[in-house]
């Protein structure tokens, strides 16, 4: 009983597809080798799998086979399309004339758009040119307006960004000021305590007490000096009457 006919279509099952590819690849390479031996032909086979892997076989070398293939393609192409110098010159001349005409047309159109070479135009052509110019001007104005609106939008966004950055900086400065003032308030009592108990303050107190003692002594000496002067003045006043009395007695004698 013969095998059933296999329908030629893509195998959906991946494992079955890989098994079939491996079997048929080996069979194809075997047939190519047999063909090369039996018919004394140069045979080359290149196979790309669905995963991108390359399989190749050549009866001589793949480089030689590909070089021979490319050379044969070029020869076949030259035989199918023989080179005709006269025909090539004609084609080249036609192409040059076409390019010249296109250049003249574009140059004339450019000059007319600039308001020159309008003498040969009819009223209808002038109207069409006017409409074309008006349409171009309107397009330019729309483009200018769009660019200005985009610039204005970017400027507003930049302005808002700058305002937000300034506000953030202001808040940071306020926070730093508040932290600085709170730190100063916290440090003031500690500084006062340290200054009260510092040796410099004790020395200053000793100096103040010593100066107070000196002032007291000076005040005492001043009082003593004043009393001595007062006593001397009293003695002088007592002596003066006696001297006056003795003088009067001498005069009377």
UniProtKB/TrEMBL annotation:
GO terms for molecular function: DNA-binding transcription factor activity; protein dimerization activity; RNA polymerase II transcription regulatory region sequence-specific DNA binding. Transmembrane segments: none annotated. It is found in: Nucleus. The keyword Transcription regulation applies. Residues 89-179 form the K-box domain. Residues 187-253 are annotated as: Disordered. Keywords: Coiled coil, DNA-binding, Nucleus, Transcription, Transcription regulation. GO terms for cellular component: nucleus. SMART domains: MADS (SM00432). Residues 198-210 have a biased composition (Low complexity). Residues 240-253 have a biased composition (Polar residues). Signal peptide: none annotated. InterPro entries: MADS-box/MEF2_TF, MEF2-like_N, TF_Kbox, TF_MADSbox, TF_MADSbox_sf. It comes from the Eukaryota. Gene3D superfamilies: Transcription factor, MADS-box. Residues 123-179 form a coiled coil. PANTHER family: SERUM RESPONSE FACTOR HOMOLOG. This is MADS-box domain-containing protein.
């Amino acid at each position: 009983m013969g095998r059933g006919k296999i329908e030629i279509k893509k195998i959906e099952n991946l494992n079955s597809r890989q098994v079939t590819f491996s079997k048929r690849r080996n069979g194809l390479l075997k047939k190519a080798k047999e063909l090369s031996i039996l018919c004394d032909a140069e045979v080359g086979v290149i196979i790309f799998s669905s995963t991108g892997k390359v399989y190749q076989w050549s009866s001589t070398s793949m480089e030689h086979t590909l070089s021979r293939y490319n050379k044969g393609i070029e020869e076949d192409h030259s035989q199918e399309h023989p080179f005709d110098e006269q025909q090539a010159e004609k084609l080249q001349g036609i192409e040059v004339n076409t390019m010249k005409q296109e250049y003249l047309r574009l140059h004339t159109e450019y000059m007319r758009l600039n308001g020159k070479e309008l003498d040969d135009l009819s009223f209808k052509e002038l109207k069409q040119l006017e409409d074309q110019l008006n349409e171009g001007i309107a397009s330019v104005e729309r483009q200018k307006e769009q660019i200005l609106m985009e610039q204005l939008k970017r400027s507003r966004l930049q302005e808002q960004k700058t305002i937000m950055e300034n506000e953030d900086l202001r808040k940071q400065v306020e926070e730093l000021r508040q932290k600085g003032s709170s730190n100063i308030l916290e440090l003031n009592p500690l500084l006062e305590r340290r200054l009260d108990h510092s040796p410099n303050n004790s020395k200053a107190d000793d100096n103040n007490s010593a100066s107070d003692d000196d002032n007291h002594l000076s005040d005492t000496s001043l009082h003593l000096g004043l009393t001595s002067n007062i006593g001397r003045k009293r003695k002088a006043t007592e002596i003066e009457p006696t001297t006056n009395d003795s003088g009067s007695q001498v005069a009377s004698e």
